[in-house]
Amino acid sequence: MQHHRITLILGLVLLWAGGGAYAGGPDRQEDRGEDIWEDAPRPPQYPWWYRWLSDDATVERILKGIEKRDPAKAKELAELRKKDPERFKAELWTAGAQEIQEISRERYEAHRQRRQEEFLAWLKANYPRDAEDVARAKEKDPQLYVRVYERMWDQYGRIFEALSTNPELGAVLKEDFDLKRRRDDLLRRLRHERSDARRQEIGSELQEIVARRYDLIVRRKEIAYEQLQKKLEELQRQIKDSKDEIVRWQDSDLKRENVRRRLEALTERERGFRWD
Among 205, 196, 259, which Cα is nearest to 36's? Predict the structure, then answer.
């Protein structure tokens, strides 16, 4: 049971957070080093489910489930929700494990089905014969359908995913895939062709395909290079900002002013009236 729950939760991790910890949490204005006396703050590392339990509708559903099983616990959580929202979420995650597992299964299945429908629609639009194979398998045998679907995903999944995240890369991959199919077809014909004239025609078309595939492979590498270049430019920007900040804090006048203000803040804190 625990292993099954972990599997479902992992699906939601991929769905909402892309894996890893969710570092969003409540909105906050990050300190970009304006106060040199404080350590550079880092966003709080909230668990991936933090955002999920920030959704009122989801929380209400979990609470209703708990109320049916344990009314006293539901009442305790309702009171805690008013007093300490952060602790409430942590305790709700534990107390509502049964409801969370059910919601996890529903959401993961809905996401999987939606993605599958999108892929099949794309397959029908671009490779109708393969889409027909999938449809026939679905009508004939569920297990056969799974095998055929997985085979189609192995063939086309990378193209389909790339078209969503990087349309140009997806277009390059699709054209290259189609050219490889055409190349293989021409090679089969070439092996059985006896006419020299036809063999020459096939050879000319093969040459065009190989030349075009060369261009596509180079373009694919260019796209990868451009992505790395963007990451490098962002890193260089961060390096420049960090260097500028250091130079700013090294200014002697700014140092004197900051030291003076810090001393004032420290001494005023000691002299200040304390109500508690």
Answer: 259
Q: Which residue has the tokens 């030349």?
A: 211
CATH number at 243 reads 1.20.58
Structural domain of 182: 167-252
Q: What's the structural domain count of the chain? A: 1
Phi, psi of 22 (to 5 degrees): -90, 120
State the chain's maximal CA–CA distance in angstroms: 104
Asked whether residue 100 is domain-assigned, the answer is no
Answer whether residue 61 is part of any domain. Answer: no
pLDDT for the residue numbered 1 = 45
Per-block mean pLDDT, blocks of 10 residues, the chain (276 long): 45 45 39 56 58 86 94 93 90 91 92 95 97 95 95 97 95 97 96 94 96 97 96 95 92 91 81 56
Burial 38-70 (b: 16+ CB within 10 A, else e): eeeeeeeebbbbbebbeeeebbebbbebbeeee
DSSP for 20-34, written as a single string: S-B---S------SS
Q: How far is CA 173 from CA 153, 157, 158, 177, 213, in A?
A: 14, 11, 8, 6, 10
Cα–Cα distance for residue pair 216/160, rounded to 1 Å: 17
Tell me the two tokens of residue 266: 């420290």
- Tokens 């106060």 appear where? 35
pLDDT recorded at residue 51 = 76
Name the pTM for this structure: 0.67
